[in-house]
Amino acid sequence: DQQVKQNSPSLSVQEGRISILNCDYTNSMFDYFLWYKKYPAEGPTFLISISSIKDKNEDGRFTVFLNKSAKHLSLHIVPSQPGDSAVYFCAASGNSGNTPLVFGKGTRLSVIA
Amino acid sequence: NAGVMQNPRHLVRRRGQEARLRCSPMKGHSHVYWYRQLPEEGLKFMVYLQKENIIDESGMPKERFSAEFPKEGPSILRIQQVVRGDSAAYFCASSPRIAGVSTDTQYFGPGTRLTVL
Questions:
Q1: A12-58 pLDDT per residue, tens
Q2: A64/A62 Cα distance (integer angstroms)
Q3: Closest-CA residue of chain B to A50
Q4: pLDDT above 70 (res A98)
């Protein structure tokens, strides 16, 4: 039973364009959502998060959108850069982050120069 | 450098041996989480610890696996009598759990890659 789903295993985007990574969840108790970026042989690096009381959070080139009614969130990267090529994990938590994270399987983003 | 530290980065064990994985949280963080990642999978929660306490071990296999976070020193994930299926990347994360802060972010270490021969 996968509570957090990233249905696109991979995504290719041209440098300078927008990358949109999607994530769906099933557990309505989740109230805190995070995106992590992971390079091979390294640990996940925290990118951006959003609480369920918001529908958008922006940090530089990264914006996360949350649609609670659809149980869907997305990460927008604009403009995309070659250094953004990595695996992106969506994660969810209950109790405002004070519980273990539930991860999706990840989306591999390739930004082509 | 105040990042989460894990050692060793790579660990090779033969079936039946013990594996010990260590995690030092970020300075000022008192909460530690262990996750396991199998190939082509996301990270799966194993155990959540506070100093000298196990808060949630719902993701830990019932046998051979144990974890501790002593008052002094790093958190340790111990796997006894390893089997080939234990081969995976094991990640530790820490969080500060600051009183009055409404949300809490976990920061990850570089992981330990365990290979069981």
A1: 999 999 999 999 999 999 999 999 999 998 999 999 999 999 999 99
A2: 7
A3: B103
A4: no
Report the length, in residues, of chain A.
113
Distance (Å, whole) CA A64 – CA A36: 12
Q: Are B52 and B67 in contact (CB under 8 A)?
A: no
**How far apart, in whole angstroms, are the C-alpha atoms of residue B24 and residue A38?**
20
Indicate the residue of B42, B102, B108 with minimum beta-carbon distance to A43: B108
Average pLDDT for residues B60-66, to the nearest whole number? Answer: 95
* Nearest-CA distance A112 → chain B (Å): 22
Cα gap A59→A31, rounded to integer Å: 20
Q: With beta carbons under 8 A apart, name residues in chain B contacting A98.
A: 97, 104
Averaged pLDDT, A2-12: 94
